[in-house]
Amino acid sequence: MATLSSSSCRSYATSLSSSSSSSSSSQAPICGHNQRITLSSIPHRFLSAKISCQLSRRGSRGNAVRMQDGAVAPAITPVENDSPFKKPKENLPPISPPVETKEAPGFDVHQNESTVTITIVGASGDLAKKKIFPALFALYYEDCLPKHFTIFGYARTKMTDAELRTMISKTLTCRIDKRENCGEKMDQFLERCFYHSGQYDSQENFAELDRKLKEHEAGRVSNRLFYLSIPPNIFIEAVKCASLSASSGNGWTRVIVEKPFGRDSESSAALTKALKQYLQEDQIFRIDHYLGKELVENLSVLRFSNLIFEPLWSRQYIRNVQLIFSEDFGTEGRGGYFDNYGIIRDIIQNHLLQILALFAMETPVSLDAEDIRNEKVKVLRSMRPLSLEDVVIGQYKSHTKGGITYPGYIDDKTVPKDSLTPTFAAAALFIDNARWDGVPFLMKAGKALHNKIAEIRVQFRHVPGNLYNRNFGTDLDQATNELVIRVQPDEAIYLKINNKVPGLGMRLDRSNLNLHYAARYSKEIPDAYERLLLDAIEGERRLFIRSDELDAAWSLFTPVLKELEEKKIIPEYYPYGSRGPVGAHYLAARYNVRWGDLGSEQ
Ligand SMILES: NC(=O)C1=CN([C@@H]2O[C@H](COP(=O)(O)OP(=O)(O)OC[C@H]3O[C@@H](n4cnc5c(N)ncnc54)[C@H](OP(=O)(O)O)[C@@H]3O)[C@@H](O)[C@H]2O)C=CC1
Ligand SMILES: O=C1O[C@H](COP(=O)(O)O)[C@@H](O)[C@H](O)[C@H]1O
């Protein structure tokens, strides 16, 4: 049955190939160092170990992946340069069994080897504990981190290395399919984690960090990844200090920046400008974790490697596209942050818009990061800025059900009582290009709704002159095909088709051709942060946001966000746990659309 490699593993074994060409600026030190070392200076023998990581990501114990139905997808032979991602990765460190020995600091005995240090700035925070450390552990567990790696936590909180390890050990989990040696792996991983306490605006504190990093690097080529897991108002100070006092002297330095990337065009441009004082564009990895989700990553595969979808992918056959995000909990605990942003900035302008761009782009020249991002930016620049009449906003209010009272948004102590910040929004967007002219792209995102789901729905047009129309009664909508890509939870891709109900009569029903991941694949789906962290380590920028994409995204939403705020538009209130404001239906109806997630069978 299965003939394609299906695992979450990388098939771009090229990341292993040596690079002498790729973007030099990301290899360049960023503050005053002048030595450059490229991957070509790393002995070739080290590269093969990386291949074994790639293979282990292809299947738990061998090169192949077993499907739930017993079929085996063959692994891809690990030939260097077989990557679909044409551009070779930069300066990759070698991979080998993850046992680190203590090195005497300060000696350049390892100058032919390289090392990667990942510093999590804001290590004491929520995201670091919840996502970043667990993702790094998962990568370690899969033998996907380089042989010489070190993880540093950096924050103001006073903590020892041991205390950091205790803190993060609470949130590390093991892969379901490989529990046996989990404890051992966890201990090994924790031994590679260290902590340095410092201020975010202190060059001196970062210089202390630099000294510690150097000790761990022990004279090897030093590659440094900083993950800014801190509130946005301190991004610039932290980047400045990291850049001036703790960037690599002879390898690459990269910085992962978390959203929010500003709150409108102006502030986003200011942030970009400030970041670029200290970093080159290709050192900046702007993360949108939705791009790291398995089914979002699969969008292009589905479309460009199956003959049956691409010919239908246009206004000729597609009636509308729906991008839906809902959470069944409120802003609990994050109300302070959220009130300054609202759901349009929190979800729609980034996560849903990024999915839209990937969905709607033209075929890129290659799978190279710049080719893909070039196509995405064209989509964004072809879009009409959102207008006020194409937006509906809502805010959840308290609701009592089954004797339990669920708080309203403004019941959160960190939210002003008179807040008009939307916790729900629906919007109709249009791409004014030849492929998508007139096709509504409807987006809907909300907190404290009745379910937790993220999905893409593609509703196709009616079959012209359908011979079987009368077998459906008058509801033509019911007779059109719909492709659903359920991003989460319970990942699936299904296509609603019309089918004859078996029997002597001629009755049609709607059935699903269903690719249900849990039934099809035994391998656990990696968390988005795992994929993105590994990409950042490997210098793969495909899933990160380029500054021109960001500018284009903000241009679409800034005018309407300003108008909503200036006119103090009152959101439609909806009860906690409901399906959201009824206004979303009117908006869809205006474009002759019915939300696909609300029908009797979804
Ligand atoms: N949490 C999440 O689910 C998500 C978060 N993000 C983004 O990731 C980043 C980190 O988020 P999160 O971990 O929730 O943030 P936190 O509020 O938990 O902050 C992280 C750390 O930053 C330090 N810090 C907090 N407030 C301040 C302040 N005012 N001044 C100086 N330092 C401060 C604290 O460390 P210390 O006091 O020890 O220095 C804190 O532990 C943010 O940009 C956020 O928008 C993005 C998506 C989801
Ligand atoms: O970026 C964000 O995403 C989360 C939802 O992420 P998910 O991976 O759990 O779907 C959302 O809760 C948060 O408000 C937002 O900032």
From TrEMBL:
EC number(s) stated in the UniProt entry for this protein: 1.1.1.49
Pathway the protein takes part in: Carbohydrate degradation; pentose phosphate pathway; D-ribulose 5-phosphate from D-glucose 6-phosphate (oxidative stage): step 1/3
A single Gene Ontology CC term: chloroplast stroma
Function: Catalyzes the rate-limiting step of the oxidative pentose-phosphate pathway, which represents a route for the dissimilation of carbohydrates besides glycolysis. The main function of this enzyme is to provide reducing power (NADPH) and pentose phosphates for fatty acid and nucleic acid synthesis which are involved in membrane synthesis and cell division.
GO molecular function, one term: NADP binding
Localization per record: Plastid, Chloroplast stroma
Protein family (similarity comment): Belongs to the glucose-6-phosphate dehydrogenase family.
Keywords on record: Carbohydrate metabolism, Glucose metabolism, NADP, Oxidoreductase
Domain (Glucose-6-phosphate dehydrogenase C-terminal): residue spans on this chain: 301-595
Residue span, Glucose-6-phosphate dehydrogenase NAD-binding domain: 120-298
Record-given protein name: Glucose-6-phosphate 1-dehydrogenase
GO biological process: glucose metabolic process; pentose-phosphate shunt, oxidative branch
Pfam families: G6PD_C, G6PD_N
HAMAP family: G6PD
Region (Disordered): 77-98
Residue ranges of coiled coil: none
Annotated catalysed reactions: D-glucose 6-phosphate + NADP(+) = 6-phospho-D-glucono-1,5-lactone + NADPH + H(+)
